[in-house]
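Task: sequence design from structure.
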């Protein structure tokens, strides 16, 4: 079977690290990177550390707003999919590349498999929510990471088949977290002690694109009563620079470039708490039994909140600071599977062959 996989950003590379490893033992895979967020150095680190295959095709379509980016990706992926004639197009998560990969396939009459189907934040203003819902509507195989995602889809009656596989990020975390935990060099690099700092990520459009919200984010970070290490996403860096607040933030917070997975995971497992607006990081904090505080008012990863491991505070500094010191729950459920999701993804793809 010939599988064409479309990726466009960092978390999708992490997910592909789990799936491509298994997929390539049984099938032919052509990896296409749209270039939505592409950092050459970081991609090389991900290839070296996680074994993410080097994309066979690089489209180099970074930049632009959502509408323009979606249009440009679709214009490039349409002819590419028609020319490659794969048996299935595989997409991950909720980015513009997820939607355009799926739509290009449907328009060429090729089946679509969506990994991380069924996730909902119920916030239709999020570009990610729009991409998720639309991609689920056009997919033939809806590969769900949790029972909540499965129930969400069962209520929507999609045309495709729903298959529970578990979360492929658990596969990656199980494989690499023990290795990352040994890596204390990154703590020394940023001058922090195990258990004595907060690691932060922030890049959601809703938090950084609106100057009033961005200001609230800066105020929140400045108020945190722990050393904060913040690997800065390019979007956030651009917005802070434009607003003239980058230097002020740098006086209070240790700013880092985007880190490789092992460095970032080492910070995550050794931190006192994780402060984030990322979907993947909320879940990774949960898997690592780390205290998580989420700077959003909704989440798709509802089990992390219901179990008490994650608290939603939006950009309320007082609530965030209180949540950073809350006691950890005694129970740690496992709603995202057993670390063997990638095998189930490939098993599900096999059924398309039949
Ligand atoms: N991550 C990383 N380096 C960093 C920050 C995050 O490797 O400096 C990883 C993180 O471990 C997770 C993924 O990137 O696997 C999350 O990506 P991101 O926050 O960009 O996206 P989201 O999950 O919000 O879509």
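Answer:
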């Amino acid at each position: 079977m010939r599988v064409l996989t479309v990726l466009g950003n960092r978390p999708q590379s992490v997910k592909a690290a789990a799936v491509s490893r298994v997929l390539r033992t049984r099938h032919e895979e052509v990896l296409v990177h749209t270039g939505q967020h592409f950092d050459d150095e970081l991609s090389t680190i991900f290839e070296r550390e996680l074994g993410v295959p080097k994309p066979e095709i690089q489209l180099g379509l970074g930049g632009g707003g959502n509408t323009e980016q979606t249009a440009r990706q679709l214009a490039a992926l349409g002819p590419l999919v028609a020319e490659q004639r794969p048996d299935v197009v595989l997409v991950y998560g909720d980015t513009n590349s997820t939607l355009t990969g799926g739509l290009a396939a449907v328009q060429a009459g090729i089946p679509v498999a969506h990994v991380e189907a069924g996730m909902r934040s119920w916030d239709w203003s999020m570009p990610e929510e729009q991409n998720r819902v639309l991609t689920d509507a056009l997919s033939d195989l809806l590969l769900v990471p949790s029972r909540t995602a499965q129930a969400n889809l069962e209520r929507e009656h999609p045309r495709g088949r729903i298959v529970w596989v578990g979360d492929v990020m658990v596969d990656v975390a199980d494989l690499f977290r023990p290795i990352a935990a040994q890596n204390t060099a990154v703590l020394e690099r940023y001058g922090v002690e195990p258990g004595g700092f907060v690691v932060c990520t922030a890049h959601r459009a809703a938090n950084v694109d609106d100057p009033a919200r961005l200001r609230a984010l800066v105020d929140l970070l400045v108020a945190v009563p722990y050393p904060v290490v913040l690997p800065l996403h390019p979007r956030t860096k651009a917005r802070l620079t434009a607003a003239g607040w980058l230097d002020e933030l740098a006086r209070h917070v240790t700013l880092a470039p985007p880190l490789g997975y092992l460095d970032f995971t080492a910070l995550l497992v050794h931190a006192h708490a994780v402060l984030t607006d990322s979907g993947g990081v909320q879940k990774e904090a949960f898997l690592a039994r780390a205290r998580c505080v989420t700077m959003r008012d909704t989440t798709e990863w509802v089990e992390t909140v219901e179990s008490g491991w994650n608290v939603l505070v939006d950009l309320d500094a007082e609530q965030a600071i209180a949540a950073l010191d809350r006691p950890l729950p005694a129970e740690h459920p496992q709603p995202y599977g057993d670390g063997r999701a990638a095998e189930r993804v490939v098993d599900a793809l096999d059924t398309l062959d039949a």
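Residues 66-84 form the longest helix (19 residues).
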